[in-house]
Design brief:
Elements lengths: L1 H27 L4 H12 L5 E3 L3 H6 L9 E3 L7 H11 L8 E6 L17 H8 L8 H4 L7 H12 L30 H9 L4 H20 L3 E6 L4 H4 L4 H17 L3 E5 L11 E3 L2 E2 L1 H15 L7
Parallel strand pairs: 1-2, 1-3, 3-4, 4-5
Antiparallel strand pairs: 6-7
Helix pairs in contact: 4-9
């Protein structure tokens, strides 16, 4: 009877296992930002002189189109220093021409761990598309269909395989293209206090210490490779800046300055309150739109050019 029940169970489960295996393969093959950037770096990494890392501030804020030399934006939404370091370590050996890394920093970008954040579903993209060797037995780190309903899975599959709609939301140079002035919420200014308090609440001492350690490892790796690391504290709108915790902001600035002093190849520039960025440069209180990103990128390019490239 025991053997019969095992066979029956297997016969019942097999179709479902086959279904989910098929769905997993189909989901993994839908092009997205992660798969696009990973493949691009594998194929073209040796050509670039500038690599952009960081979270959404870099993704929507630094447009390689406005840099004076060949560059690529490898940032992702909610990408913290642990994953910046992982991407850098994975591809740096093939980046023979790399001379600059641009790393935008924000008020809260050092406060959290991606794994324990509300965006932890993003972690599996680094395993699936970048080959990060994490916990192979943790489904949320390895399965594309994890945390998705069957309905949402079929919508994505139908959208790509029937309608040809991929999930790439960036330009050919990796820049996020959806934060446009025309799409800005009419109530965007009023969200400053809400967002600032939410970001302050993310602060975790252990995560902060780990992120600082990752930043230092990035700086050390760049020093070994004679690469200039440019950390830029990105601009934010006044309603956000006025509501952030001044002590946490002070801590951020001190730590970033300390790293720039410790490593001669690191520059730190604070543009949080930069008067060049005005009302029409923002998409929301802590992200720039297409006009602000052009201005931000040109400002970084000017800084970058104060450290001339060498052939």
């Amino acid at each position: 009877m025991s053997r019969f029940l095992k066979k029956l169970t297997w016969l019942v489960l097999f179709p479902f296992l086959l279904l989910y295996a098929s769905l997993e393969v189909m989901l993994r093959n839908i092009p997205n930002d992660y798969s696009f950037k990973s493949k691009w770096l594998q194929t073209n990494g040796k050509q670039i002189k500038v690599l952009v890392l960081g979270s959404s501030t870099g993704y929507y804020g630094v447009n390689p189109r406005f840099l004076s030399v060949k560059a690529f934006n490898a940032s992702h939404v909610y990408q913290n220093p642990k994953y910046d370091l992982f991407i850098l370590e994975k591809f740096i050996s093939s980046m023979d021409s790399l001379q600059y890394i641009i790393l935008p920093v924000t008020y809260h970008s050092l406060f959290y761990s991606l794994e324990t954040s509300g965006e932890n579903w993003r972690t599996k993209n680094y395993s699936i598309h970048y080959g990060l060797q994490g916990n192979r037995f943790d489904p949320k780190l390895n399965l594309a269909f994890y945390d998705h309903t069957l309905l949402s899975i079929f919508k994505r599959i139908f959208g790509y395989y029937i309608n040809g709609q991929n999930e790439i939301n960036c330009s050919a140079q990796g820049f996020g293209t959806s934060y446009l002035l025309e799409k800005r919420s009419p109530q965007w200014e009023g969200e400053g206090g809400i967002k600032a308090k939410a970001h302050s609440a993310l602060f975790d001492e252990e995560d902060y210490a780990e992120n600082l350690m990752m930043l230092e490892r990035i700086a050390e790796l760049c020093k070994e490779r004679r690469i200039r690391l440019i950390m830029v504290f990105a601009p934010a709108w006044i309603t956000y800046v006025e509501s952030i915790d001044p002590e946490l902001l002070k801590l951020d600035l001190i730590k970033c300055k300390d790293i720039s002093k410790k490593y001669g190849n690191v520059s730190f520039i604070n543009m949080l309150n930069d008067s060049r960025f005005t009302y029409d440069d923002f998409y929301d209180v802590n992200h720039l739109n297409e006009f602000g990103s052009e201005k931000f990128t040109l400002a970084i390019d000017s800084i970058m050019n104060s450290y001339p490239l060498t052939d």
